[in-house]
Amino acid sequence: MAGLAWLGQDCLLCGARADPELLCEACAGELRGLPEHCPRCALPSLFGAVCGSCLADPPHFDGTLALWLYEFPCDRLVQALKYRAWLALAPFFARQLASRVLPAVDLVVPMPLHPDRLALRGFNQAVEIARGVAKQLRLQLAPRGARRVTSTAAQTDLPYEERARNVRGAFACDLDLTGKSVAVVDDVMTTGATLNELARVLKRAGATRVENLVIARSVLRETGLP
Questions:
Q1: d(Cα 94, Cα 12) in Å, to the nearest integer?
Q2: pTM (2 decimals)?
C-alpha cells in the first residue's frame, strides 16, 4: 500500500484503485458527517440550535465546523497523519475543509504544539492542514503566532472533567489581533477544552471572533447520537 498510496493511486484505507484521490469512492462514503448539531460546539442539538450547555456557559470560541465524526474510518486517517506521518493526508483534509461554507475570517492559526512534543513528533499536523486551508482560501497563515508555553499531560490520558484544568494557561499569543476574526485549525475536537483555552487567549489578544475548523468531532453516545 505504502508506495502507491503516496502517489494517490491506491486507497489509503483499503488499497483499491483511487487515482487521483487518496480514498476510493466506497471508503470516502464511509466518512460520516455530523448530525444536526450546535453551531458553537458541534455537539448534537435538536434542529441545529445552540445547545443548552453553550447557552448556560458560553465557550470563548464562537463557532465550530467539523468535517466528520471521529469514528472509523475517520479516526484511522487522523491517526495516520498524526502518528504515522502520512503527510499526504494534510492537503486532503485541507481541501475538504476549504470546500465547505466557511465563516469569513482574516487569519488562520493552527493549534500549536509544545516545543518538546514538536521535537518528538517532527511536525505539527495542525500546521500542515492549516497551511493548505490558508493557501486555498488565500488567507494569511500565522503558524507561530500562538505558542504552547506549558507542556501539559495528553488530554486523551485524562478524565473529561480534568481537561479544562489541564490546559489552563497553556497558551500565549504574540499577535495583535485587534478587530480580527480568527480561524483555529485542529485535527480532533473532543471536549473542546483545548480549543476553548486557545480561543480565550486569542480574544485577550484582541480577536473579535474565533471559529474552530476541525477534521473530526468526538461525540459520546449519551449526547443523543444515533
A1: 17
A2: 0.87
